[in-house]
Amino acid sequence: VQLQASGGGLVQPGGSLRLSCAASGSRVSDDFMGWYRQAPGKQRELVASIFVGGETYVADSVKGRFTISRDNAKNTVYLEMNSLKPEDTAVYYCNCRGAFWGQGTLVTVSS
């Protein structure tokens, strides 16, 4: 399984970004998929996940601001991030089945 994450960048507080995770070797519709993040000096934490049946989970810290979704035809999972805050600054990682990791994409929220 290979995961290619993209979409990170520098954004001002209150701005938006959409992260993408393109999968190969696995079908995103058939596996648990998650987005994690790791800020400097902190442990990696689960931000959002989507299950085989389409149910989603979003961490309390980003609830109402972040949305996870998937496009089965493109075999891609997305993380839509709105109302970004400086504390959202981190490297964001895509994960499949809790076992396979993408390379990470850096999100920096700063004015």
Give the SSE layout.
Layout: E1 2-6, E2 9-11, E3 17-24, E4 33-38, E5 45-50, E6 56-58, E7 66-71, E8 76-81, E9 90-96, E10 100-101, E11 105-109
Parallel strand pairs: 2-11
Antiparallel strand pairs: 1-3, 3-8, 4-5, 4-9, 5-6, 7-8, 9-10, 9-11
Architecture overview:
- With 111 residues, the protein is mostly beta strands.
- 0% of the residues lie in helices and 51% in strands.
- The chain is built from no helices and 11 strands.
- The chain has strands at 2-6, 9-11, 17-24, 33-38, 45-50, 56-58, 66-71, 76-81, 90-96, 100-101, 105-109.
- The strands form 2 sheets. Strands 2, 4, 5, 6, 9, 10 and 11 form a 7-stranded mixed beta sheet that branches. Strands 1-3-8-7 form a 4-stranded antiparallel beta sheet, with no helix packed on it.
- The chain starts with a strand and ends with a strand.
- The mean pLDDT is 96.
Key descriptive features of the protein:
single chain, 111 residues, mainly beta, seven-stranded mixed sheet, four-stranded antiparallel sheet, 51% strand, globular
